[in-house]
Design a protein that fits this description.
Elements (H helix, E strand, L loop, with lengths): L1 H34 L6 H22 L8 H5 L2 H36 L2 E3 L3 E3 H5 L1 H18 L11
Antiparallel strand pairs: 1-2
Helix pairs in contact: 1-2, 2-6, 4-6
Length: 160
């Protein structure tokens, strides 16, 4: 399915970003200790990379139920009741994520309209950084809707 491929690609990209961060930090340690010259702007690049990896990996983690879950209550409920509660909570999660999409998109659009820039080791438009959040939360909204229709552990979603 297209959506599964999309969030899989986002997760793969997040993994590549984390691998690049690990390699860059290792190289930075060697360069700093051996030659006294660190990689310019690495701290800022790592911060942006962590932002990307976190937000782009989140929809895939949600789709795999890889997030932290406290199932003390739902584990004690009868299966039909637990499934109904899972649907309600997924609908609630979709609602919250949709609200975040709206406000995060507004922030990115306002920033783009003002031409705001982030000036650190790199100078980049602020909306580039802000646009990651509405995109990721849109994917999270879709995944929560999918889980509201068919909670994890049920046969594949048809048509989504």
């Amino acid at each position: 399915m297209f959506f599964d491929r999309l969030i899989g690609l986002c997760a793969a990209f997040a993994g590549l970003v984390l691998a690049a961060i690990a390699l860059a930090i290792s190289a930075n340690v060697v360069l700093r200790n051996a030659f006294g010259t660190p990689i310019f702007g690495l701290l800022d690049a790592v911060e942006y990379g962590l932002l990307l990896a976190t937000f782009l990996g989140a929809p895939w983690v949600l789709s795999k139920s890889g997030h932290v879950a406290v199932d003390l209550v739902t584990g004690a409920l009868p299966r039909p009741t637990a499934r109904a509660l899972a649907r309600v909570m997924a609908a609630f999660g979709a609602s919250v994520c949709a609200v975040v999409v709206w406000y995060a998109a507004q922030a990115a659009l306002i920033s783009a309209g003002k031409g705001s820039m982030i000036r650190t080791a790199f100078t980049i438009p602020e909306w580039w950084v802000l646009s990651v959040m509405p995109a990721a939360f849109a994917l999270l909204t879709i995944e929560f809707v999918r889980q509201a229709i068919r909670p994890p552990g049920t046969p594949e979603l048809a048509g989504l």
